[in-house]
Amino acid sequence: MTSINILFIGDVVGRSGRKILKDKLPLLKQQYMLDFVFCNGENAAGGLGITADIAGELLNSGIDGITLGNHIWSQKVWLQQAAHFKQVCRPLNAPDDWPGFDHVYIKKDNYDVLLISLMGQAFIKPILANPFQVIDRMLSKFKEKYHTKNIIIDFHAESTAEKITMGYFLENKVLAVLGTHTHVQTADEQILGNGTAFITDIGMTGPANGVLGMNKNVALEWAMNLLPATYDIEKDSFTMLNAVLLTVDPNAGQAKKIERIQIFDHVFA
Known about the structure:
alpha/beta, 14 strands, 25% helix
């Protein structure tokens, strides 16, 4: 059986997240003989959003495709830049007039992967179209267009129940359903059905000592005073890289194994 290895890196948060990704990815590629590498980059620019420079930095670091989520327009310059990056995709269930691309298709060495971002509806804003209805309608069209069985869904959602439901909804229909957004790596990685890899949340890549990457003092101020506070990334902290490794039969479009990866690094200054 032919197999390939795919790494999906959890939400990259700010400069420290980009740095540990750049530092560790060459070693991970060598260690796991990676064929494709993807990441969620919606927090890559100062913790909120993405820009052309940062998208280019991630791609130049060895990322093949980047997914985005609810903070997609936090850096407003991306409104003018999104259309220039075919390797970066907005949520598929977003309004049609949103700039940019609603999927990423990558082919290398006779193997291909279709990468799709979906955004949940529970406890998250903006509320987009029903992700279950959208993917149900679009999946057959994508398969007909690209003739690929290797489809990875980044389900960017707040609710764990919604993510798990999406996993079962797409069981045996896609290669993987991988949750992002909540920034905490969950311990429920599994293979659903005959080969759909699933995890509720991959986790995050960035500051490890803060609150989901945020400065812990700011988070404490929010919690104690219930007053507005300026979002600020935790800087005086260890950094971490969270990811999942998929071992895949690309001809069958089935995941044979999903493995959590968590790496901690030195203090980032």
